[in-house]
Structure formats: C-alpha cells, structure tokens
Design a protein that fits this description.
Helices cover 18% and strands 30% of the residues. Strands 6, 7, 8, 9, 11, 12, 14, 15, 19 and 20 form a 10-stranded antiparallel beta sheet that branches. A hairpin with a 4-residue loop joins strand 7 and strand 8. Helix 6 runs parallel beside helix 7. The longest helix has 23 residues. The chain is globular and about 85 Å long. It starts with a strand and ends in an 11-residue tail after the last strand. The chain binds (2R,3S,4R,5S)-2-(hydroxymethyl)piperidine-3,4,5-triol (DGJ).
C-alpha cells in the first residue's frame, strides 16, 4: 500500500495490493479522476481526455475559452459553474445562491486511518495498516472548506472515501447535497448492478446496461431499506463471477441514501454515492463541521466473485467489532415462528429442552416478553417484563435456560413506541411527527426521535438495565417500520430537513454506547428481516437477520444476493417448519438445513412437534455444522451457480489455507429425464488432493476413512458431476479435506 504525490505529474497515486486510484490536479486547483483500476506501478497520464472547447459547454476559467468543467472528469463536482452533470456537492448561501467553487488548497498524507466523528467506519488496529490522503479544497468566496479523505489499506484491496465540510466564513451555509464519493469514467460500455427487492425478497441481483441519462437506486424510507441496498457496481460488459472489471461503491450508512450512474453526452459515466439529497438539508453555522458517511470502493478485475471476497475480508475483520468478531457464532433456537406472541415460561423452557437435546447452543426469546404485549399493537417502549407470561422474570428464565447448557438471548425493538404504551402516554412528542398532521402508524407503532438526547438516554438506560440484571449473551435488535412525518419537535423550522440524518446519528450514538458497555453480548441487527442490512449496522452488530422469509427456496436467492457484498458470517439463517409461514411451500428438512447452514445456523420451530426422524436429521445438521462452522463463518466464499439464472444454485466455502472446503448444490425444480449437472469448483489448491465426504444425504460417510479422492485441478477444471437428484428441492453437499493420500478412482456420487 502506498499513497504518493508527484508534483511533476500533479497527481496523487493511491495503491493497494491490486488496485490503483489516481487523482490529477488540473490547472493547479481542479481535482480530476484520472484512473481507477488494476494496480499500476507508475502513472504518467496517458489517457486523460483533451480539454477542448465543446458547444454548449461554457468556459469555466477566465482567459481559457476551451476549458469547461463540463468535460473534466471530476472527483468532487459542484453545480452552476459549467458542469451540468449531477454534482457531489451543493451549498446554499445567505444570498440564495447555490454555486460552490471548491479549489485545491493543500493536502497531507498520514499513516493510519482517522475515525469519522459520530459515524461508523472501516477501522485499522495499527497505523501501519493504512495510509490516509486528505485533500483540502476551499471556496474562498463563501468560506467553505471540504476535506476529501482517501484511505488505502495494506492488507485489504479496498479504498475508502469521505468528506468533511467546515464553515470557515461568517455566514450560515445550508448544505443541500453532499455525496461521500463521486468518480468519473471515460466510457459507458458498462452495466450497472444493484441489490433490490422488498420485505421477504431482499437483495435480489439486478443488472442493466448503462444508457445516456441517470440511473439510480435510493432510499427515502429513513432506513437503508429492504427495497434497495446502499451499493452500486459498474461492470464491464460480459462480467461474470470470475472475469471482468467491477467498480463498486458501498456506503457505510443505514439511512436515506442515493447511488447513481449518469452517462453524459460524450459517453462518459459519473458514479456517485452518499446521503440522499432528497428531503435533506443541513445548516452549517460559522465554525461548524459536517462529516459525510464513508464509502467503501472496491475494484476487481476478477469479476463479481473477486469483488465479493474483497468486501468480505475487509468487513469481517475491519468493519465488524466486538468480542464476537472472530468467535464462532452460536447455533440458536428462536421462538418466534414456534409461538409468535403466544408463550409462557413453561413453553419457553420446553423449547429450551428441545434445543439442548438437539445440540443447539442458545435460546432466543423473541417479541412479546414485555409490557402487555400479546400482539403487535402495544407496549413498545415499556421495557419491563410481562409477569403474567414470565412470573419469575427474565432472571429466573435465563438461569433455568443456563442450567440446560444453553445461553440466553433476548429481542428488543428499542427505536419504536406503541401508541398503547406508558411511554407514549408520558411523552407523546418523543416520536417523529409534524404538528397538526396525522401520525401514520406502521405495524401499529411510531418511531422514536433518536435525534433527541433525552430519547437516546431513555433507550440506552432501558436496554442497559436489562442487560445488566440478566445473564444475556445475545440481543436481537429489531426495527419494524419506516419513517413518515419525519419531523422533530426538538428542531427549529429551518432544521427540519436534518431530522432523518440526525435520527441515524442518534441511532449510532445509542448503538455505540450499548455495544461498548456490553462487549460480551452478540448483537444481531434486524429490521423486519433484512431491511437494514448495511455496513453501518454491521459496524455495531456483526450479524443481521437476513430476511423474515425463511422459505429455503426464497432464501437461496436472498442469501446469494446478500453475499455479493456481505460475508456469510454476517447472515442469520434459520430452518423453520413447513408449510413455510411466508410462502406455504413444503421443502424437505435436509434442503432447509443445507440452505441455512450457509450462514449463521439457527432454528425457528418447536422441537416438541418434530417426528423422531426429523429430530435425528436436525441433530445431524447441528453436528455437521459445528464441524464446518469455521469454514462457513471465516472461510472464502465462492458462488458457483446462480439461482437467478436457472433452477439450481451452488456455492462453496474454502479455508484460507485451502486445506478444507464445503460445497453445496441445490436443485430447485427438477425436470424429468434431465442431464446431470456439472459443478466446477473454485478456490482449491490445484495440486492438492482432496477427499470428498458427503455431508447431506449419507451421514455415515461424513468423516469416513475411505472417501473418493480428486485433485483440486480436476475438480476445478473438469468439475464434479452431480447425480442422485430426482425431485424438486433436493440438495447435496460435500466436505473436501486435503490429504496426503494418492487418488482413489471411485465416484463421489455413486
Ligand atoms: C420482525 C422480525 O424480523 C421477526 O424475526 C420477529 O422478530 C418479529 N419482528 C417480532 O415482532
């Protein structure tokens, strides 16, 4: 890793292990994107476009009629002085003007990576792990300073970007738009790829060819959302899992965002990501600063798989925090789909007995344990135990569960308030609202205004006092509606458009305080499933409930799409009962287990209702999972077949030293008389000899001494033939173990 400035070439060259990013200083004060791609040893500027005059592109520089910002590939563009494309920044002044003219003033290159004030970010543990370039731009007329930060890492092939604005003048400035990263490409022969969907259908992969005009994904919901993820990738035409160029941006932010790509009149493309300017404005008084969220930038010349593994390794060890970052995640039983709100202590203890007997490690008590909550219409905000359901309180329950050899986990939804609650009666103005307007309810609840310090203190104290008094190892932190009437009683009229961002800053403050006070607790984020599956949440909660949809077929697409950015160790994945509660689909238990074992395995059913053979199958799954858990949670992930492209899916996990791997194949819809699929494996050591032990259908072969043996090269080049599938919803999986033995020419699948 290195960041250098060459005064002769007037350029900054950021190099990480496999990527170069070059920023040019034009005319001594404009910042231009020169290159972002495969690592280069040096930069002599062979490719910058000539700055010649163009019709209807006005001159931006006195005395130079041919120079227009409209054709300059810019790093942090403004609007109103020549560039007609989407700006990265727009600031309103007291005279009403929104023209901003930021010019290079100075820069510095420092070891390490400073933290972002009030916002989560990728971090380093030692200064030697990264270098930071800070370029200071100034608009002298209005007294605005923008410090653009670029970070290159030594051990991760990624860059981060963010912007800090400071009002150095004497007038009040109003930020109307500030993206975290913007970058111009000289071509447009690319596709854009994004993760979109809805509740129960999160993060499906969408791809479309770029065309003149602007294409974007965004959230206006107050949360990053089920509907779109704060991510955008541009890919060269024909890019697949293993080949092609990918340029990706992912925003470390959990609120309203915008990610967009604009193709201009000359076939250049501008890519940007940041807080959504829609319904956003921020007043910057003299002396005040504003910190943008961080964008993570990844380039891969080895296709989407290469991109994903770069995000995965960075996020696993330098975004996620806490004692569970590097620890195996417990296999849990969650009571939600087993009981919904209808439970008492006896019922929960019987679930715990079932979980313990099957080898599980944690019992999670979901919604309904507090206040008067027998359905979703009351008590959010009243975080005191419901003694009718749990007469001994949470302490007695947790102790009894502990005696069964299980850890205890608890559900909270701290950001919300029910209208039917003591908290709402006492503080009706603590929710987001606009005076005189109807307060739209979502799931019969309102959103607490986390921009207010007293509300944050209430939430921190309510959650902390329970975590202090009960032996709790895991918290599921839920959030079940989006924001409406997003106004704050604590803000003056001119600051109302700050409400949504202040909410997110408040949320991060609450999460920071709670997670720092309880580092031994494993926090799992949730928002009606995966409605806030983003890097901002991952910085506090190293795993997230991937979706409320537990149907195994739906989960193949959801988990496959999620894996584009987020490592499997961050995905909560549960086996539930059939018919599935969301889709009514009936799939075999083995298939459900296999899908869930590709994330953090859990169960969401009543073991007491299982047949003996089902119990045996679950006990087997738990046993296999404990063996493969290090691979799934900390290995390298390779996607082999996409459920978006056919009736099957496949993926595999490979140990960092390539000594073991776990591969799974799933057939969704079976066709009579169809061919036998061929699965080309990835990531193995070509010369290594791997013994294959089936882990799905024949538990007796798991760990057996004589297993078929193939070279890594054979498995990757010729592939593994999949047989034995003869109906819908079947799967097969194998554990591969590198061995010193010579190959045995037996068929793995016979
Ligand atoms: C939504 C979550 O995603 C579910 O898993 C469950 O916790 C419910 N909320 C409880 O209300």
């Amino acid at each position: 890793m290195s960041i250098t400035f060459s005064p002769e070439a007037s350029c900054f060259h950021l190099q990480s292990s496999d990527t170069s990013y070059v920023v040019r200083l034009v005319k001594g004060h404009y910042l231009a994107t020169a290159y972002w791609g495969r690592r280069l040893d040096s930069w002599s500027d062979p490719s910058s476009p000539p700055l010649v005059g163009r019709a209807f592109s006005p001159s931006s520089e006195p005395g130079d009629p041919g120079f227009s910002l409209d054709v300059l590939p810019q790093e942090f563009p403004a609007f109103g002085n020549g560039d007609f494309r989407s700006p990265a920044i727009q600031v309103q002044q007291e005279d009403g003007s929104t023209i901003t003219d930021l010019r290079y003033r100075t820069h510095r290159i420092v070891a390490g990576k400073p933290t972002l004030e009030g916002l989560p970010s990728v971090y380093v543990e030692k200064d030697a792990e990264a270098q930071t370039l800070e370029i200071t731009l100034v608009d002298e007329l209005i007294g605005l300073e923008a410090v653009l930060s670029y970070v290159a890492f030594s051990d991760f092939d990624a860059l981060t970007r963010s912007v800090r604005l400071r009002n150095t003048g004497s007038q009040r400035l109003r930020i109307l738009r500030v993206l975290s990263a913007s970058c111009d490409f000289s071509g447009a022969d690319m596709e854009m790829l994004h993760l979109s969907g809805s509740w129960g259908r999160e993060r499906h992969i969408f791809r479309r060819r770029l065309a003149p005009g602007t294409a974007s994904v965004e959230s206006r919901r107050g949360a990053s959302s089920h509907q779109h993820n704060p991510f955008l990738a541009l890919v060269s035409l024909g890019t697949d899992e293993d080949s092609g160029d990918v340029w990706a941006m992912n925003l470390v932010y959990s609120g309203n965002f915008l990610a967009q790509a604009e193709v201009d009149q000359f076939g250049s493309t501008r890519m940007g990501i940041g807080i959504n300017p829609f319904e956003f404005a921020w007043t910057l008084a003299p002396g005040d600063s504003f910190q943008s969220p961080e964008a993570v930038l990844v380039h891969s010349h080895a296709g989407l798989g290469g991109m994903s593994r770069k995000f995965h390794s960075l996020y696993r060890s330098r975004l996620c925090r806490g004692s569970f970052r590097d620890l195996p995640r417990p296999i849990l039983l969650n009571n939600w789909e087993a009981t919904y709100f209808d439970f008492d202590e006896k019922k929960i203890l019987s679930l715990a007995d079932g979980a313990a007997a099957l080898g599980m490690e944690l019992l999670v008590l979901d919604d309904g344990w507090f206040g008067q909550r027998d359905d979703d219409g009351s008590s959010l905000g009243d975080w005191t135990v419901n003694c009718r359901k749990l007469p001994g309180g949470l302490e007695a329950l947790a102790r009894s569960i502990g005696k069964k050899g299980l850890r205890f986990g608890l559900w909270f939804e701290p950001e919300m308030v029910s209208v039917r609650s003591r908290l709402y009666r006492e503080h009706p103005d603590w929710c987001l609202h606009v005076p005189g307007r109807h307060r739209s309810e979502g799931r019969r609840q309102l959103v607490l205004d986390l921009g207010r310090a007293e509300v944050r203190d209430y939430v921190v104290n309510a959650v902390s006092s329970i975590l202090r008094s009960v032996p709790i190892s895991y918290v599921k932190w839920d959030m079940n509606r989006h924001h409406t009437e997003a106004g704050s009683a604590a803000l003056p009229p001119e600051r109302q458009k700050e409400t949504s961002h202040r909410y997110i800053l408040g949320l991060y403050d609450v999460l920071e305080r709670i997670t720092r006070s309880f580092p031994h607790v494993l926090f799992e984020g949730c928002s009606g499933g995966g409605g806030r599956f983003d890097p901002g949440i991952l910085a506090y909660m190293p795993q997230i409930w991937t979706s409320d949809n537990t149907d195994a077929v739906a989960r193949l697409s959801i988990q496959y799409g999620t894996s584009l950015l987020y490592p499997p160790v961050t995905m909560g994945a549960h086996v539930s009962a059939v018919p599935n509660h969301q889709s009514k689909r009936v799939t075999p238990l083995a298939f459900r287990g296999e899908v869930a074992m590709a994330g953090n395995l859990g169960y969401e059913l009543d073991p007491g209702k299982l047949l003996q053979e089902e119990k045996a199958e679950i006990a087997r799954q738990v046993c296999v999972y404990k063996d493969i858990r290090p691979l799934v949670q900390f290995g390298d992930f390779y996607r082999l077949q996409s459920p978006f492209e056919g009736d099957s899916a496949a993926w595999m996990f490979v140990a960092p030293d390539r000594s073991r791997a776990w591969v799974s194949f799933f057939r969704i819809r079976f066709e009579a008389n169809s061919s036998f699929p061929l699965l080309k494996l990835k990531g193995l050591e070509p010369g290594g000899r791997y013994a294959l032990a089936e882990t799905t259908r024949d538990p007796r072969s798991h760990g057996a001494s004589v297993n078929p043996l193939f070279s890594g090269e054979e498995l990757m080049e010729a592939g593994l033939r999949i047989t034995g599938i003869d109906s819908d919803f079947q799967s097969r999986s194998w554990l591969l173990t590198k061995t010193a033995q010579q190959p045995v020419r037996a068929l793995a699948h016979s």
